[in-house]
Amino acid sequence: MADKDIIAAVTLLIALLSYVPYVMSICRGKTKPHAFSWIIWAAVTAIVFVAQMVDGGGSGAWVTGFSTACLTLIALLSLWRGEMSRTRSDWIVFCGAFAAIPLWLLTKDPFWSVCLVTAIDAVAYIPTLRKSWHKPYEEMAYKSALTAVKHAGTLLALHNLSIVTVIYPLVSLIMEVIVVTMLLARRWFVGKERSA
Q1: Average model confidence (pLDDT) for the chain?
Q2: Which residues cross the membrane (predicted)?
Q3: Bridge partners of 34?
Q4: SS3 assignment, position 105
């Protein structure tokens, strides 16, 4: 298990390297996160952290716990310095996600709970993807790339590999790769449009 603890420690460092510049960029006003996404992610990640601990995630769950604290900080900062426009679809996603969160309590089964909160987490990417499509320079591709690496590290550090412990970091890794790909593609196209 010592190898998994080392992987978790390295993954925590990667998480720190992704969150610190992101927080600094928010404070400088360069990065403008969408509050709805970050509020949902903070709530969902807290639930997943508890589920991973209960299901024996071990040191792999440490990263999820640390991420919960960082996501909460970013959610609070996004209320102060984040994207201020809210579309109808943003409100639908936000209200729908929070309406669905209590359902995990009703399942009384860690499998269905984690599946539900993972789906909620994936839906929470919609406001960020929508905003980033229109304003690709207001998000840090670097942060999303490191977050994808963090999720890969979390998967490697989990002591107990089960659907309950694996599904959330796996889906989150996929979503972060989508964010990075979309940001880089949009920046390339926006750059082409500006130079034309």
Answers
A1: 88
A2: 6-23, 35-54, 60-80, 89-105, 166-185
A3: 83
A4: helix
